[in-house]
């Protein structure tokens, strides 16, 4: 047999084995009699065309029936898409002990910044969550409030220099990203990032790079998530070296300076330094079981930075978009701002912001319609029999809780494409299932920084509405198109709006 024949037979054998492997994998849900969507070799239910990941979830969700979930596949891996709010509540809250893992990828040895609280599992997650939760209490938010207002006032001054007396058309997503970068830089690192003055400042550059220039595309990232142990053996790092080096060096230098000069601040970095030195930050005890390493401190600071600046700036971007398209809602929101500030002698205090309930409803409705994170991941730690059914979610199976789909389900939110902040009055909230809103997740692994995220978004909107009016411009996209290359739900091409001073 010549070489060509050997090669061809080898190729046919390999392809046949791969096909048989996938065929066996693709029988998983059928063999269990589950409601599922028929997969296609080799992507499973992932679309062949380039779309945002939320479109993949939407396509699966459309196959829901009276059963509590839809079975699907990412590549060869079976996954669960829960469609029952009761099942979702079990996974996130009631039976959390069985779904405490996210099943993400991190590499503590080669890529220490990836081992932050969002991605780690088990005892390490429990330790970090327990120790970091006191950082985000209402009391700590009051301490940070004035810092955020100070940056917001600088943001207002920057806009005043840009916006012409007759009005201007601006791309607001980048401007809002610069605002939240400066907020997080100040609250997390105690550093003046100056992104508002310098759009190319280091913090802004590296923060943008994390989201807009990821090291891996969606397909490679899925492979890493499916085979995490192999990826670790191959020393796969999620972050680019320059991004990792920048944040590690910044944290080291900041801590070194503070400890040498005995600098104390009411910010996130100060709390992390206390944890590094074995001190408690919750006033209940003076010490803790173990100290954080420098790499662990850097990983948590990195998480706070990238999660804090991007999600909040995106939320404000969408809020202003909807307010521009809905001038009556914008007018009502501005009137609330002016009325409450008048009661507080024109000063934006913590108490004044708390009184602005309609602004809070706008933020909630924005997160409903445009959730930055379109799905939540949980992995079964052991076999889980779904109550009142014969169905079992087997150990190791991942669930993708379809946040975007729930938020846009007309059975839960009538006319879901209509922007209506009155959906979030206390009475309306009480009348809905607790799992009908997952803008910050829920249960023990919900967003630990939700209070801070809401606070900085609220302060930003208050300052903007008090000083500017927003309207659509010729470049405003209606409807919006989402960027398929960015995991966070992001408008493609930015957000162009008309803005004029009041």
UniProtKB/TrEMBL annotation:
Bilayer topology: Peripheral membrane protein
Native source species: Hermetia illucens (Black soldier fly)
A GO term for molecular function: iron ion binding
SUPFAM superfamilies: Cytochrome P450
Lineage: Eukaryota, Metazoa, Ecdysozoa, Arthropoda, Hexapoda
Protein's recorded name: Cytochrome P450
Cofactor: heme
Family as reported in the entry's similarity comment: Belongs to the cytochrome P450 family.
Entry keywords, A to Z: Endoplasmic reticulum, Heme, Iron, Membrane, Metal-binding, Microsome, Monooxygenase, Oxidoreductase, Transmembrane, Transmembrane helix
Gene3D superfamilies with a match to the protein in the record: Cytochrome P450 (1.10.630.10)
Binding, heme: 447
UniProt cross-references to InterPro entries, sorted A to Z: Cyt_P450, Cyt_P450_CS, Cyt_P450_E_grp-I, Cyt_P450_sf, Insect_CytP450_Detox
GO CC entries: endoplasmic reticulum membrane
Location of this chain's protein in the cell: Endoplasmic reticulum membrane; Microsome membrane
